Amino acid sequence: MAKKNIKTVFSCQSCGYQTPKWLGKCPDCGQWHSFTEETVTPRATKRAEENTLSGTGTPVPVPIDAITIENEQRLSTGIGEFDRVLGGGVVPGTLVLIGGDPGIGKSTLMLQALYGLAQIGYKVQA
Description:
Oligomer: single chain
Helix content: 10-25%
Strand order of the largest sheet: 2-1-3
Strand content: 5-15%
Largest sheet: 3 strands, antiparallel
Distance between the termini: 49 Å
Shape: elongated
Structural class: alpha+beta
């Protein structure tokens, strides 16, 4: 295993608190001189390996013009401008982050979008 993947941490023997450097007194439980040095090797998760294009666990950059666009089924909310911003509607199974200043109408917009989806027969929960 590569040496750069090995990480050193100091763990309190009383409570388990961990820190990247040695401390005389544990800030969590207050014990003095209870830290011991431990080496930790992070394990690569299977999910991280699956998310890489090469399958080797190392991310590979892809030119933007090499990315294939898949035609996903999109659900129209009935709000034309909102659907346009989303690329034609909401894609099932995706997440959309709605942000803005307080009072600008984020909750109202979401309620109207859910109402539009409910009108065409989808079960929605607010």
